[in-house]
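Thread title: Can someone regenerate the structure for this chain?

I was given the following input by a collaborator and told the matching C-alpha cells would be attached. They weren't. Posting the sequence so someone can regenerate them.
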Amino acid sequence: MKQRSLGRQGLQTSTLGLGTMGMTMAYGAADDTHSTATIHRAHELGVTMFDTAQLYGHGRGTSEQLLGRAIHDYRDDVIVATKFGFDFDKTTTIPGMPGFEMPTLSSTPAKIREVTDDSLRHLDTDYIDVLYQHRVDPNVPIEEVAGTVGELINAGKVRYFGLSEAPPDVIRRAHAVQPVSVLQSEYSIFQRWNEHDVLPVVRELGIGFVAYSPLGRGFLTSSIRSRTEYDVGDIRRTDPFWQDEDYEANIAAIFELTTLAAARGITLAQFALAWLLAQGPDIVPIPGTRSPARLEENLAAAEIDLTADELARVTTILPRGGHRNR
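Best answer:
Regenerated them for you:
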C-alpha cells in the first residue's frame, strides 16, 4: 500500500490504517478470533497504522492486549498508536449504554506515566510509536502534558506525540513545548467541522491528521439500519445522526451518495474513504472493522481517485456534513 507522511517529525504510515475500538466496545458483541484475523489480514495487505487506546475495552487493557498479541510477530514493521487521558477509578454511567461507565478525564503527569507503562505491558512492547492525549483535560495545563510526553520520548518509551480532538489554541500551546506529530479527530463526509479551524492550524504547524470514524460511525456503509435495530450498548442507538428527523434526512443523502458511488462502480464506503483521502495528502483515515472482508473493501479505496465533478457533487448533497441537530 502507498505511504503517507504525517507531519514534519518523520512519521510515515500506510495511506489507510485500522481502528480497533469496535473490537472490544461500542459497536455490539465482538469476537477476538475474527478481530485477530482482521488485524493479520490488514498487515498482509500493507496496513502499518494500528490504533488503540486505554479507553477501549473499558480501561482493562483488553484492546491493547488483543492488538499486542496479534502483531507480536511483526511488531517492528507497524506503527502502534495508543492513548491516555482517563482515570477509571472515577466513572459515570453513560445514558443509553448499560454496563458502560465513562471514566473521568485525567492527564496529570503521574497518570500519564502510569497509563503509558500499563500500555507498554498490555501491548507487550518496549515502545509506543504514537502516544495521544485522548481528550483535553481542562484541569491540567497542556504544557505539562506535552512536557511529560516529551520526557517519555527522551526515555525511549514513545516515538511521537499526538493529540486527539484538541482545539487550535491547545494544539499551538502543546506544539510549542513538544512538537506534535499528529492530531486525531473525527472527519468524514458527515462530520466536517475540522475543516474550518483545525485543519488550517495543523497544516500551518506541519502536523499530520488521522481521521477516526471516517465512515460516519457506520452511516456511510451499506449496512445502515434504524437505531432501534442495534444492540443495547451500541453507540449508534444514541448518536445524533440516527435520531428521528435527522435520520430521515441523512438517509436521503445516503441514497444520493450511494447512487453516485454506484455510477463509479464502487461501494459507498469506498467512495467515502476516497473522498476523505482527496482532502489532502496529510490525512490518514483509520476505519474500524472486525471483518476481513469489510477490511478488504475499505482498503481498495486507497487506489480510487475521485474526479473534480464527483467531489463537487458531494458538496452539493451535504454542504456542511450530515444532519445533526443535537
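The chain has a mean pLDDT of 88.
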